[in-house]
Design goal:
The chain is mainly alpha-helical and 126 residues long. Helices cover 67% and strands 0% of the residues. The protein has 6 helices and no strands.
Length: 126
């Protein structure tokens, strides 16, 4: 069994999984874009090796009802030296994402109505 080849295959899988919707990478990328950070800086802040950061990014997002606890478990599974920074970053990114989704939904809702129209009257065909 070729260990080097197995390691390369595993790293390739992590990179593939990180690009899928619902991965931790989706929130980390959102946060990097907002904060103007590189992935290397984010990796350093969490205290992860390159291999463990790839694994971290490929993990599925925490369950909504257990978000902080699941994020902590993910940090422990990836042997982060600063798990608190990761948990806080993930919570912040989730809140940003939810805020953006709420703003998009409320904008669409507001655009559905025209203040000049009288909604009690049936429009006439012209």
């Amino acid at each position: 069994m070729n260990t080097n080849s197995d390691s390369e295959i595993l790293q390739g899988w992590y990179q593939f999984a990180a690009q899928q919707p619902g991965s931790v990478e989706s929130l980390l990328q959102l946060l990097r874009n907002r904060q103007g950070k590189s992935s290397d800086r984010q990796r350093t802040e969490f205290g992860a090796t390159s291999q463990m950061f790839d694994k971290l990014r490929s993990m599925r997002l925490p369950r909504e009802q257990f978000f902080a606890q699941d994020a902590k478990r993910i940090a422990e599974a990836c042997y982060l030296s600063n798990p608190t920074a990761f948990v806080q970053a993930l919570i912040l990114a989730r809140n940003i994402q939810q805020s953006e989704q709420f703003q998009a939904a409320s904008t669409s809702y507001m655009a559905a109505f025209d203040d000049n129209d009288n909604l009690d009257e049936i429009p006439t065909e012209e």
